[in-house]
Amino acid sequence: MPNIAYVNGEFLPLEKATVSIEDRGFQFGDGVYEVIRVYGRTPFRLNAHLSRLSQSAQAISIPVPFEPKEWEALIREGLQQSAYSECKVYIQMTRGVAPRDHLFPEASHPTIVMTFREMADLPLHMVEQGVAAVTLPDLRWARCSIKSLNLLPNLLAKQEANQAGAFEAILIKDGFLTEGTSSNVVLVKNGALLTPALSNQLLAGVTRQAILELAKSKGIVVEERPVREKELTQADELFLIGTTIEVLPVTRLNGHPVGLGVPGPITKRMREYFRALVHTK
Ligand code: PLP
Fold first, then answer.
1. Which of 16, 69, 88, 147 is catalytic?
2. Atom 8 in ligand 1: which residue has the minimum CA distance?
């Protein structure tokens, strides 16, 4: 089965899908998006993703053309057409096509694009050995809770991390941890999970919410508070969380081992709890 795309009402093979060069997503990054993981044909926490999509769109005044039930029907249709059991659904909503002008067009007709691509599990060595990360300054804007298409600072930081031999850049603003370029970050200290509280400086991750709920239900203490850069280097364990990486141990930070330099026991437990959660849904 081919990878499938949906563009403004039509499903078609991904390579046949196009949008206008005057789309404001292309011209300005004027839009929002979501990435949803599908496990065994079931989207993980679809409602949470759809409500975040709606909040992101509302925050930048893009009218949302569908109710959750309508989104769900479209996603089900795409999943059926692609016939993938394990896949990721990408949804992008832009302010639509208009002659290039910074001002919003008077009538907004959002462009809706979705793609359905097969998705494999992460390579085992990443999970078993953990990955390297580097800290970099967070150069993004002040509304990072909006899942906007404008990802340039994230891309630059991810590229810089890659060139330093690391998988992810962990971003620091004014001496405090915000998040990764495409992940939330959790520290383990003395058996407790520690992660920055939600604010306009970071994305309210769907995985983050699931992990914090799981930890609490298993009796693991969770602290959501400002995290100083220095606390990262003193952490017993460190892990990244996100839709496509699930729970990924960080075992080297800025070239130094994190804790014992191997995935720690709490990180492993959180990964197991998460895998059990997504495979029982
Ligand atoms: N933070 C950023 C900047 C992201 O781009 C992402 C996901 O792509 C996340 C956090 C994790 O969010 P979620 O768990 O909803 O995928």
1. 147
2. 182
The amino acid at residue 63 is: P
Nearest-CA residue for ligand 1 atom 13 is 205
Nearest to 199 by CA among 238, 235, 173: 173
Other CB atoms within 10 A of residue 8 CB: 13
The pLDDT value given to residue 243: 98
Q: What is the reported pLDDT for 146? A: 98
Does ligand 1 lie within 6 Å of residue 211's CB atom? Answer: no
C-beta of residue 88 within 8 angstroms of C-beta of residue 37: yes
Q: How far apart are CA 121 and CA 112, in angstroms?
A: 27
Give the contacts of 178 (CB within 8 A, at least 6 positions apart). 138, 144, 171, 172, 196, 201, 202
Contact 184, 229 (CB under 8 A): no
Closest by Cα among 202, 153, 158, 209 to 177 = 202
* Cβ neighbour number for residue 50 with a 10 Å cutoff: 23
Q: What does the pLDDT look like over 236-279, one tens digit per residue?
A: 999 999 999 999 999 999 999 999 999 999 999 999 999 999 98
Q: Whose CA is nearest to atom 9 of ligand 1?
A: 183
| The ligand 1 atom nearest the CA atom of 52 | 15
Q: CA-CA distance, 164 to 158, in Å (whole number)?
A: 10
- Which whole number is the average pLDDT over 103-130? 95
147: annotated active-site residue: yes
Is residue 149 within 8 Å of 30, Cβ to Cβ?
A: yes
Predicted confidence (pLDDT) per residue in 105-114, tens digit:
998 899 999 9
- Work out which ligand 1 atom sits closest to the CA atom of 181: 3
